[in-house]
Amino acid sequence: MNRKSTTGLLLALFLVWLGGCITEYTPKDLKQVGSLLVVEGTISGPGTRIKLSRSVGLLDNFTGAEYIADAAVWVECSDGSLFYGNHLQKGEYEIPMPELDRQQRYRLHIETYGSEYASEFLAPLQTPEVDSIFWVKKELGAPVKVCVATHDPLEQSHFYRWNYKENWEVRAALIARLSWERVNGELQFVYYDLDTPKHIYACWGKDSSQVLHLGSSEKLSEYRIARKELLEMHPANDRISVLYHVAVEQTILRKEAFDYFANLQKNIEAVGGVFSPMPTELRGNIYNMDDREEYVIGYIEVSTVTKAERYMEPQDNMYEPGKLCTSPEDLEGEHYIYSYVDKGFEIKYYYAYRECFDCRTYPGVTKIKPSWWKNEWPR
Fold first, then answer.
1. Residue 103, Cα to own-chain centre: how many angstroms?
2. I need a surface site. Which of 30, 37, 115, 124 has the fewest CB within 10 A?
3. Per-residue pLDDT tens for 85-105?
4. Are 68 and 91 in contact (CB under 8 A)?
């Protein structure tokens, strides 16, 4: 594509690392361009992963066919070493390689659709450790914010990017011993054993960062970030009601990479989603080796990645329950039997709304418990 031919490049930008809300947007007087190469990832040493896809037109739908699964992907080291990647799934490639050597420089190569692409040679940065993960809340009713702190003792750069993964446990307000369930199309009583996975008392959810999280200490006298907010939750959010876990990945960036991602973030936020007009000035460091004018989306940084994780339990009034469940004895009809007490020959039934005793009614959760989860009970 000739860069001089248009002042605005219209993309329905599908970025694999962004899974946020997609908003329909139709700007005027801009040319629509699709099928551009989208590259995401960081050359970080062992476990380096690169994601490849093609952008879709603004009025087109992403079908999954845009993932690039048959490319040749490798990392080139300035000493001549080559490290080839293997396709995993959905356009993601893992590149087995050793730890980054600060005396060398690295770049990414991609062969796809008869063309070869490469990023610029860069010397690796050494990402500092995450100093702490913590949460803050100003007062009752205020949102709960999950934050990180870090500093760079080597004073390499002021710029950072973060990704995170969340896991949490929720528990129903009431413990159910039995209820109605539809089994093989028939409504019947089902008994729940709290000491086995058959219970409906505890469930687990997971999520991951859906937007770019960038931070800078450029305006400070120190190479230190005291508090970077990654996400915030309403104090009545059930994610923080029992046990919450967050795993954070931190990457230090060059100013050029930070500026690229910051501009990309502004461009996406301008229209509320990943369908957005992309100016031709917003170029990364990846190019077609035979045609420098071809537009490629992405910036490949060369930097180690540090990781930190933390469990967080409710404390200091962080969690404020938004609803209370009771167990009246005279509710029938649309209510459900949730428990019983056997007193000799007498069986007493209690009733409640299902959302009071069935954790499966909570949003974003399942009965699948992470194998590494801290709480051993319930199963």
1. 33
2. 115
3. 999 999 999 999 999 999 999
4. yes
